[in-house]
From TrEMBL:
This is Insulin-like growth factor 2 mRNA-binding protein 2. Pfam families: KH_1, RRM_1. PANTHER family: KH DOMAIN CONTAINING RNA BINDING PROTEIN (PTHR10288). One of its GO terms (molecular function) is RNA binding. InterPro entries: KH_dom, KH_dom_type_1, KH_dom_type_1_sf, Nucleotide-bd_a/b_plait_sf, RBD_domain_sf, RRM_dom. One of its GO terms (biological process) is mRNA transport. SMART domains: KH (SM00322), RRM (SM00360). Residues 159-198 are annotated as: Disordered.
Length: 439
């Protein structure tokens, strides 16, 4: 993935010229620079430096009188379902981006790339080669506010011929298997965003602690995300004047728990410094349809968690639910350690319920071969469990929320909480992008 194509080169450009250019921009180029007539191929050690090279040089730097072009070098046989989108506004809501991507096909995997750039970068895997091609054509140059999307193919090893395809991991599962991890920037398997298993932790925190959680210039929350390998969204601008703000944590179950622990610890330290005497309980948000299975018959599941963790757990009343706020608040009181243990057990039960709903929907879909529930509009193709663009806790969204994917049983009892804005809410600028590849 980290081989770059450098095009529109003057015939007088040498390998030394290219290496000097990269050195001046502090770009760590590998030794191999293959110079051809009018273009070159350059290997970079990792995805982050490759992205930096593209963002820094392409269309911005003149070499021997010609403005150079830089992009991924992807052989045609490996141009298939995977694309990379760069220059995404850092404040763009995930469900807005996901709704945009879903207009061009079924997105099997969406993962954010950790980079040093101010804007966001994501790798997207579509269900088919054709869908990826359409997405590149439609999204290249797409304008969102003052940002213009940049889109490229990235290497799809699943598209390689059988003799070149990578060996499957133990058990015969390939990287296209349900929920399989995708290689990270250096070939390591980092925290991906497999759509079927992304079940984030949502918590409520007192508004007065939001500043401490974010930290000066965002350093505290950056440290949390880095240490726990998670994506943390603090919805601080929503519900102005509210006593509490929701936080959404995307990661593995362990990553979510680690981030939650760090946030609780930050709040406790802030409370001690400000001499706040009240204990700070852990408040977890969960959709009402999942809560019954958390409680269990005659409250047995909840009682067991309380006994094993030494906590007191209460759940908000059904009367607090509205069509725009179908979440219930699970309040956990106890020591920091006890609350963290309870969080892990509570989320385990909620994830089990969520995955059961996913399995039930997949089974229903398989009853009619070829039926595309996304195309019919029955289920949103959006990322699972994402907060709406406005009003996650009671405020009425500006646009009526769309149906949410796995939770549409019992006359849409989960529909709408994490919906995707309609296509009409997003403007587009379409153009076609052509890429050159290594021979």
């Amino acid at each position: 993935m980290n081989k770059l194509y450098v095009g529109n080169l003057s015939p007088s450009v040498t390998v030394e010229d290219l290496k000097q250019l990269f050195g001046e921009r502090k770009l760590p180029v590998a030794d191999q620079v293959l110079l051809k007539s009018g273009y070159a191929f350059v290997d970079f050690p990792d995805q982050n430096s490759a992205i930096k090279a593209i963002e820094t040089l392409s269309g911005k730097v003149e070499l021997h009188g010609k403005v150079i072009e830089v992009d991924y070098s992807v052989p045609k046989k490996l141009r298939s379902r995977k694309i990379q989108i760069r220059n995404i506004p850092p404040h763009l809501q995930w469900e807005v981006l996901d709704g945009l991507l879903a207009q061009y096909g079924t997105v099997e995997n969406l993962e954010q790339v950790n980079t040093d750039t101010e804007t966001a970068v994501v790798n997207v895997t579509y269900a088919t080669k054709e869908e990826a091609k359409v997405a590149i054509e439609k999204l290249t140059g797409h304008q969102f506010e003052d940002y213009s999307f940049k889109v490229s193919y990235i290497v799809d090893m699943d598209a390689a011929p059988p003799d070149q395809a990578p060996r499957t991991r133990r058990g015969g599962r390939s990287s296209r298997d349900h929920g399989a991890s995708q290689p990270g920037p250096s070939g390591e398997f980092g925290p991906p965003r497999p759509r079927q298993h992304d079940f984030p932790l949502r918590i409520l925190v007192p508004t007065q602690f939001v500043g401490a959680i974010i930290g000066k210039e965002g350093l505290t929350i950056k440290n949390v995300t880095k240490q726990t390998q998670s994506k943390v969204d603090i919805h601080r601008k929503e519900n102005a004047g509210a006593a509490e703000k929701p936080i959404t944590i995307h990661s593995t179950p362990e990553g979510c728990s680690s981030a939650c622990r760090m946030i609780l610890d930050i709040m406790q330290k802030e409370a001690n410094e400000t001499k706040t005497t009240e204990d700070i309980p852990l408040k977890i948000l969960a959709h009402n349809s999942l809560v019954g299975r958390l409680i269990g018959k005659e409250g047995r599941n909840l009682k067991k968690i309380e006994e094993e963790t030494g906590t007191k757990i209460t759940i908000s009343s059904l009367q607090d639910l509205t069509i725009y706020n179908p979440e219930r608040t699970i309040t956990v009181k106890g020591s920091l350690e006890a609350c963290c243990k309870a969080e892990a057990e509570i989320m385990k039960k909620l994830r089990e319920a969520y995955e059961n709903d996913i399995a039930a929907i997949n089974q229903q879909a398989n009853l009619i071969p070829g039926l595309n529930l996304n195309a019919l509009g029955i289920f949103s193709s959006g990322l699972p469990v994402l907060p709406p663009a406005a009003g996650p806790r009671g405020a009425v969204p500006a646009v009526a929320p769309a149906g949410y994917n796995p939770f549409l049983s019992h006359s849409s009892h989960l529909g709408g909480l994490y919906g995707v804005p309609p296509a009409s809410a997003i403007t587009h600028q379409h153009s076609v992008c052509c890429r050159k590849s290594a021979p």
